[in-house]
Prior knowledge:
- The protein has helices spanning about 1-5, 10-40, 45-55, 55-75, 85-105, 110-135, 140-165, 185-205, 220-230, 235-255, 255-265, 275-295, 300-325, 330-360, 365-395, 400-415, and strands spanning about 175, 180.
- By secondary structure, the chain is mostly helical.
- Strand 1 (about 175) and strand 2 (about 180) form a beta hairpin.
- It comes from bioreactor metagenome.
Amino acid sequence: xxxxxxxxxxxxxxxxxxxxxxxxxxxxxxxxxxxxxxxxxxxxxxxxxxxxxxxxxxxxxxxxxxxxxxxxxxxxxxxxxxxxxxxxxxxxxxxxxxxxxxxxxxxxxxxxxxxxxxxxxxxxxxxxxxxxxxxxxxxxxxxxxxxxxxxxxxxxxxxxxxxxxxxxxxxxxxxxxxxxxxxxxxxxxxxxxxxxxxxxxxxxxxxxxxxxxxxxxxxxxxxxxxxxxxxxxxxxxxxxxxxxxxxxxxxxxxxxxxxxxxxxxxxxxxxxxxxxxxxxxxxxxxxxxxxxxxxxxxxxxxxxxxxxxxxxxxxxxxxxxxxxxxxxxxxxxxxxxxxxxxxxxxxxxxxxxxxxxxxxxxxxxxxxxxxxxxxxxxxxxxxxxxxxxxxxxxxxxxxxxxxxxxxxxxxxxxxxxxxxxxxxxxxxxx
Length: 430
């Protein structure tokens, strides 16, 4: 009862520390999504082919995140079940990430090889990083906790896209790194990832497993999927479908925002990432409030309202180019950033609250499995989306991807109407 009176407050500091894991992903992902298509554009003219190459990370994620999540569920070490993955794989991720722009200057083959290695280690560690939070935070406070760690991810996006990305335009020579133009943000981001891992390892201690490990039910991922589909309450099943749809829309747009900024809005490479940076700013500001709103108003209502708003915003993005054609270049750019900021504000409300809805249906022993299911749905969408929207760009131009996103978000809104559980007031499975 003590914790009920204090609410989420006793867990706030711990959640911020756990958020260092999310900081690493938030730092790397926007830089990757913005600049890898630009790097690939040096060798490849077809946006469809660029979209195909951009799906490599998601193909790996589809298999590796569920696998590593399940393996980490069953791992027992003196430092916990998630931490061994975090302290070994995240530094390797930093190494591959820091070498990306250097590989891009050698050849297309070298770049694809580094992308291959990067995504093997990055997607193998993502599941354990994400599953660490529900291991340590009670079920009723996970929307708030997810808000905090998404705030950390948002801060990282700001650091990456508004801070580090600006260094792409700096052309100096540094020891070890050589010339810095179009390179510097990547090795610096890698260094920050390593520092975040050190802080996470030193300051966060995993709790000991309760109960008998041998007696714990260990369901394989396919069995878990069948169980979900066979439940009388198919809420988890519908959440997974909704996840697939809204990530299909999101991943169809975000990987091409940097090139849209370059090709349509005429930005420099250093400012191309600022559109994604606006999403990060919104993340940092609204992630925590969105968790509290969902705790009061309900996760389902918050998600559905946010989906409807994003439908309207992406329709507005579709009309932005012709409607702003008479404005100055700076006003065109600022108005685009403003819409992207609003997009991020409501997108974070969806992401912050959807994960806790799924976790609410898991037990302690299956937390990693449900985390894996989340990523199976989201990364399955991310595999398909860049290929589809790359083809749309080749056929009708950039504006078509915004209508594609609108359609996906509207479909997700309709499917979420069928969800009946996952609210913070419900008891978690034993």
